[in-house]
Amino acid sequence: MASQWEELEKWMRGQKLPTGFDLFRDPSWVENYVRGMVSKALPAVGNALGTGVADVTETSRYVTIVYPVDAGSDLSQLRVLVREDKMRIDGLPGGKSETVKLPHLVLPERAAAVLEGNSLIVKIPKRPRRKKVADVTISKRG
Fold first, then answer.
1. Cβ of 98: how many Cβ atoms within 10 Å?
2. pLDDT above 90: percentage of residues in the chain
3. How far is residue 67's CA from residue 84's CA, in Å, rounded to a whole number?
4. What is Dmax (Cα atoms) for the chain?
5. Going residue by residue through the chain (142 aa), what tens digit of pLDDT does each one get?
6. Residues 31 and 52 sit within 8 Å (Cβ to Cβ)
7. What pTM was computed for the model?
8. Is 10 left (phi over 0), alpha (psi -120 to 50) or beta?
9. How many Å apart are CA 18 and CA 26, to the nearest integer?
10. Radius of gyration of the chain (CA)
């Protein structure tokens, strides 16, 4: 008789989800799975989560987002808003907007965007990790 863990892994393989220790290597599969389930169950909420059309890559110093833009898009209507953890593109055809969750905290004020062909390319420097160490005093009670 199969254990409950083996049954769970069998189900996860059937759903094309990672199994075993692969679960912990890249936790983004959870977000993608939930996004897919929400989009199927509640299409309006799924649209608010974004379409997932943006191609997000990162190097050791930058996060780069490439978003396909229709050839007939009006550049004067496009607007890019960047926060430390996400980016939003406003002014897309049909008055739509797209929110992209960033894989790393960034420096929004140093973002640069360029329209190249049919692609909007946004390059944002990553926020450096803080290396500050605090010395904490230990007090004794009682």
1. 18
2. 32
3. 19
4. 73
5. 567 777 777 777 777 666 555 555 555 656 666 766 766 776 555 444 445 688 899 999 999 999 988 876 778 888 999 999 999 999 888 888 889 999 889 999 999 999 888 889 999 999 988 778 888 899 998 7
6. no
7. 0.58
8. alpha
9. 9
10. 21
Q: How many CB atoms neighbour CB 65 within 10 A? A: 24
Helix (H) or strand (E) holding 39: helix 28-41
Residue type for position 77: Q
* Token output for 109: 């004020």
**Cα separation of 60 and 76, whole Å?**
32
Estimate to the nearest angstrom the gap between the alpha carbon of 56 and the chain centroid.
8
Task: From residue 116, give the alpha-carbon distance in Å to each of 24, 34, 75, 78.
Answer: 37, 33, 11, 14
